[in-house]
Design brief:
105 residues, Aminopeptidase
């Protein structure tokens, strides 16, 4: 887990985990509404990318709720692309989320 801090308070978090040796996932991404657009999200995504590369994973995957265009733009800036895979956010729910993947070095 990584945290973004401003004036002594946590204003963002992002985590990474490895479901297998080749793939890592960016999970639990959140930035406080009051600081969105100020770079915290970029730094958090960059931290998870660096961790996944340090661990020598080949790809980094994440899921974005359909319609969350701001998050999709953030991830696209960091080289993530849609894979075409879509699933419900929660089983039996109408809200959908889509997968994005970034190849790592």
């Amino acid at each position: 887990m990584f945290a973004a801090e401003l004036d002594g308070r946590i204003v963002g978090i992002a985590g990474g985990y490895a479901p297998d040796e080749a793939t890592a996932e960016l999970i639990s991404m959140w930035v406080a509404p009051s600081v969105r657009g100020r770079g915290a999200g970029d730094r958090l995504v960059g931290s998870v990318i660096a961790w996944a590369e340090d661990e020598r994973h080949a790809t980094l995957r994440l899921w974005v709720t359909d319609g969350n265009h701001r998050a999709e733009r953030l991830y696209a800036r960091h080289g993530f692309q849609r894979t075409g895979t879509v699933k419900p956010v929660h089983s039996g729910e109408d809200r959908m989320e889509f997968e994005m993947v970034r190849k790592l070095t």
